[in-house]
Specification:
- With 102 residues, this protein is mainly alpha-helical.
- The chain has a domain of 57 residues.
- It has 2 helices and 4 strands; from the N terminus they run H-E-E-H-E-E.
- Helix 1 packs antiparallel against helix 2.
Length: 102
């Protein structure tokens, strides 16, 4: 007697994405999305921390907008460049084998 439930695919050890990898709008693990979100929160923390001169033994510097621009612009360029390339040149990727189909 055969089961009607679909069988779970066996994944190889190297196929699993790291737990910290965020997914893009198509559901794939994305380094650019992860990098963009982490850099946003680091910058936000630096901005909020700059409101206070000192908390306990930790001293904070003034918020430097130029340094933030130098930090965020390349990361945002990477992210939006990747999104633009994906939108302009649609490529289907087979989830099971990671083969590219044009």
């Amino acid at each position: 007697m055969s089961s009607t439930r679909p069988q779970k695919e066996k994944t190889q050890k190297g196929d699993k994405k790291p737990w910290y990898m965020l997914r893009d709008s198509r559901g794939h693990g994305s380094v650019t999305v992860t990098l963009m979100l982490v850099s946003f929160w680091v910058t936000t923390f630096a901005y909020v921390a700059s409101w206070f001169e000192k908390i306990g033994n930790v001293e904070f510097r003034e918020f430097d907008a130029g340094a933030v621009g130098a930090y965020l612009v390349p990361i945002l360029t990477l992210y939006f460049g990747r999104k633009w390339t994906d939108a302009k040149l649609p490529v289907k990727i087979d989830q099971k084998t990671d083969d590219v189909e044009e």
